[in-house]
What does this fold into?
Amino acid sequence: MKASMFLRIYEKDDLLPNVLYSIARQKVPFDLEICICIDGDSHDPEPLVKEYLPDAKIFRFKRCGAQAMNAHCLDIISPDSDIIIIQSCDVMHCYDNTIEELCMGVGKKVMCSAEVRDMKVNPYLYKDYENGINELMENGWNTGKVKAGIVPKRRRAFFWFLAAIGRKDFEDLNLSNEAWCDSIVTPKLMDMGFDSYFPSGIKGMHQSHDVNISPCPLMVKECGKIQHPDIYGTCKVASYFRNIGIITENDYEQFIKDGGKPICVKKI
It folds into this structure.
């Protein structure tokens, strides 16, 4: 089996060492490639990435937002990968078998996700990671805000903080030509009969940080249209953009004139 990790980075330099170290310490009994997309950071994170993950493949984009970068996932990972792991650049792996367990939990039309909680984390935790993470798990886990996890009965939830999905299933979603985020892809997953699986032993820790907004032209036309009776939660970022008017109808129309699709933002 071969798995590919797809990780996007934008302006999270202070949080990266903990995340990268938590990935580097993973014990993976199969072939794993790590593909990292740098989305026009003001500080180049590549030296830091290479310090912890020297074999990682680096891809650079002009500033286009996480949603548009997602459209490139299948273009970037190896064509022979069986499983795709997608994770946020602010989420740490709590245990050293997270990747293995995530991949083992993937099934046909089953997306396997870590339970993720938001906590204030020492940015230098990586210097004594095992002791530090154990202390957080013992003394703070139950008080952390749930970012991804089990949801009420009869509701399925699909979160991409730290999750794995079969490559064939991912291809069947037909996402390679459009920007997407949780709000865009969840209705597709649900309507196609996917299930979400949160094994009890797979945990991730989202490091609390100030809001970091990624512009997405889809928010005007797409997120505002989504109405699905079983969706758990809403896109707060999309609501924020609409409420303060950063992305307007005129912005969207200009975006269409400039190329029409989020992937018109080319790699550099």
In short: Confidence is low (pLDDT under 50) at residues 151-155, 217-248, 259-268.
